[in-house]
Design brief:
Blueprint (H helix, E strand, L loop, with lengths): L4 E6 L2 H11 L4 E4 L2 E6 L2 E7 L8 E6 L4 H9 L13 E3 L5 E7 L5 E7 L17 E9 L2 H12 L11 E6 L2 E7 L32
Parallel strand pairs: 1-4, 5-8, 9-11
Antiparallel strand pairs: 2-3, 3-4, 5-9, 6-7, 7-8, 10-11
């Protein structure tokens, strides 16, 4: 599943444009109070609006064979988030991934993720061009099973891994919607200070569907 577009509010569009454009080096355009950030074939649209700090999560795919280089590149730009002194987080099947977490504007929880089941690779010096696509978006809801049922009925999205009343991923390694219960800490790595707030209700899940393939 390719995530084509994600729309999120920001408290300061100028600050957001500087972060994604100047710090992360992503192609960024600003106009009409909206910041458009290009991540490969994906677009992150940021518009001024009410924000709950730490409420949002976006992961970006990097080539599976460039994780160490991605970390060195990222550490020059931001501080990595840690748990128990660790700043790299690996998951086994079905995820088969390695992740780095860092905070963006308004406390958004951002992630670089290398998925070992994807064929993507690159060579040469690691740059922002190696940020390949938006890999995950977090959807925090009061009722996970109801939201999952709504998304599956509308779009036929498969469960990735295991479904539960707390946490259910939908999609595939190219793109995932992570549906979690409101207030649940992000896991991994259950970083302190980052808890989910309500982003979507089950009745509004259909609005997301126009932004993926």
């Amino acid at each position: 599943m390719l995530i084509r577009q994600v729309e999120l509010p920001v408290s300061d569009a100028v600050q957001a444009a500087r972060f994604y454009g100047d710090v992360l080096g992503l192609p960024t355009r600003t106009g009409g109070g909206v910041v458009q950030v290009e991540v490969g074939p994906s677009v992150l649209l940021l518009h001024s609006g009410p924000v709950q700090p730490g409420a949002y999560h976006v992961a970006i795919t990097v080539p599976k064979d460039r994780f160490a280089e991605a970390k060195a590149w990222l550490q020059k730009r931001v501080s990595l988030l840690e748990r128990d002194g660790l700043d790299e987080f690996a998951l086994g099947a079905p995820w088969n991934s390695q992740s780095l977490y860092y905070a963006g504007p308004d406390g958004i929880l951002l992630e670089l993720i290398a998925r070992h089941d994807l064929a993507a690779s690159s060579s040469g010096r690691f740059t922002s061009a190696d940020l390949l696509r938006i890999s995950e978006i977090g959807l925090a809801v009061p009722d996970v099973p109801a939201a999952v049922a709504s998304l599956q009925n509308a779009f036929g999205l498969p469960v990735f891994g295991t479904a539960s009343s707390e946490f259910t991923p939908l999609g595939d390694p190219e793109g995932l919607l992570i549906v979690v219960r409101q207030g649940r800490p992000w896991s991994p790595p259950r970083l302190s200070g980052h808890r989910w707030a309500t982003l979507l209700s089950p009745s509004s899940c259909q609005a997301v569907g126009s932004h993926w393939r």
